[in-house]
Design brief:
Blueprint lengths: L2 E6 L5 H13 L3 E6 L9 H8 L17 H8 L2 E7 L1 H9 L5 H8 L4 E5 L3 H5 L1 H12 L3 E2 L3 E4 L5 E5 L3 H15 L6 E6 L4 E2 L5 E2 L6 H12 L3 E6 L12 E5 L3 H12 L4 E4 L6 E2 L22 E2 L3 H7 L6 E8 L3 H12 L3 E6 L9 E2 L1 E5 L4 E3 L3 E2 H16 L1
Parallel strand pairs: 1-2, 1-3, 3-4, 4-5, 8-11, 8-13, 11-12, 13-16, 16-17
Antiparallel strand pairs: 6-7, 9-10, 14-15, 17-19, 18-21, 19-20
Bound molecules: cytidine-5'-triphosphate.
Length: 397
């Protein structure tokens, strides 16, 4: 049983959302409803109040709500926020943090996972502003159901229609089943790039932004895992989740020590960090000065430890180790070599020759020890992270 707040916003598809509420209750969930004033043009709040046996929240300023601050209460009470149907306007409000009525204020105030079922005209769905808002919400972990293709209220067929209530309920149930699938599991995830100091001022670094590692950490935490996120030099915003504990590592040696120590008590290691392969044998204790007449500088570097390889070779049979392969050429050939040499259970190969660092999108190919190769289409890093974590969750089962 899950405590679900259903947010209904003003589109003709509200009538289908009534069935969604009924079916969720039939499945044993406790449902409370929040409606916008526009939604009430299509279905009355009385219908929903009678179905849920609880007053519908549609007005922050009504007399009976004066003392109880119902939106804060509902925001805290709910374990899932489901917006059905979601209009382009409500999606825009969510993406921009607007709170000008009961529904938008409550959803802004809730920490519950959010799922939305858009329903609108195809022009609105394809409008660049809606595309931008949908992408922003997806990037921030909101689950968005793809609208169905079919007859719209405008009497022509296109993409934008709300999927059938049974499909919406299946989608929600599938998510709820997964939600705690990593409960009790401990993940060590690395992100960003390491820094190898040359002297107190300079270091050797790389272009990793940390986006992929952060997205993996967020998605693992959302499915209930405890995540130890060991991050180096990053430009992306770190995730905010109570299940994620952050550890900063500067150099590859520092990262190695932290990974080794945390992995002993863990189930999964994902090495998404870009670890330096070379370092100074000894870091200068003063700033290296240019000498008069000096035109070149030679630095002799020594190899760093391969964290992935060391950990994979000493892992227990019930621990999973996943690495990445960043390649600019001969992707599969190089990734296969890395899979064999490093002994990881899986390598996620990506071509980094074109604008991958800091980008929101990527295209990856998964290689596993059984020789399986799975090429995924280009998608957002959040979607890749979600897919990878889901795959790992199935593997752990
Ligand atoms: N890795 C690691 N320790 C290192 C270097 C890399 O743990 N010293 C990990 C990375 O985190 C990644 C995988 O190994 O998961 C592959 O990293 P990549 O940079 O693609 O390859 P390298 O092993 O560094 O090999 P090369 O530079 O020759 O491509």
């Amino acid at each position: 049983m899950t405590r679900i707040a259903v947010y209904m916003t003003g589109g003709i598809a509200v009538y289908k959302a009534v069935q969604v509420v009924r079916d969720l209750e039939k499945n044993g969930h406790e449902v409370r409803v929040v409606m916008t004033k526009n939604a009430e043009h299509f279905v009355t709040s009385n219908t929903l109040a009678a179905l849920t046996k609880y007053p519908v929240l549609d007005d922050l300023w009504s007399k009976e709500n004066e003392a109880s601050i119902p939106h804060v209460h509902l925001a805290r009470w709910s374990e899932l926020a489901l917006v059905v149907p979601a209009t382009a306007n409500f999606i825009a409000k969510m993406a921009n943090g607007l709170a000008d009525d009961a529904a938008s204020t409550t959803i802004l105030a809730t920490a519950a996972p959010k799922m939305i079922v858009p329903a609108m005209n195809d022009q609105m769905w394809n409008n660049p502003a809606t595309r931008h808002n949908v992408l922003f919400l997806k990037e921030n972990g909101v689950k968005i159901m793809d609208p169905a293709v079919g007859m719209l209220a405008e009497s022509y067929a296109a993409k934008g229609r709300m999927p059938e209530p049974a499909d919406v309920v299946d989608w929600v149930e599938k998510y709820l089943n997964q939600k705690n699938s990593l409960q009790g599991k401990i993940f060590v995830i690395t992100a960003g790039g390491t820094e190898e100091s040359i002297d107190p001022v300079r270091f050797i670094g790389n272009r990793s932004s940390g986006k992929m590692g952060f997205a993996l950490a967020e998605n693992a935490a959302r499915l209930g895992a405890t995540v130890k996120l060991i991050y180096g030099n990053v430009t992306a915003n770190p995730p905010q989740n109570k299940n994620i504990k952050m550890y900063h590592a500067t150099s590859s040696e520092d990262m190695f020590e932290q990974v080794k120590s945390e992995f002993k008590k863990s189930d999964v290691l994902i090495m998404a960090a870009a670890v330096a392969d070379w370092r100074m044998p000894k870091v200068a204790d003063h700033k290296l000065k240019k000498q008069i007449g000096q035109e070149t500088l030679n630095l002799t570097l020594i190899k760093t430890k391969d964290i992935l390889q060391e950990v994979a070779h000493h892992k227990k049979h019930n621990q999973l180790v996943i690495g990445f392969a960043a390649e600019t050429n001969d992707l599969l050939e190089n990734a296969e070599k890395k899979l064999k040499k490093k002994g990881a259970d899986m390598i996620v190969a990506n071509d980094v020759s074109h604008n991958v660092f800091g980008n929101d999108y990527d295209q990856v190919t998964l290689l596993t020890q059984d020789g399986h190769i799975d090429k995924w289409p280009r998608m957002s890093k959040q979607e890749i992270a979600y897919g990878l974590i889901e795959k790992i969750a199935r593997e752990l089962k």
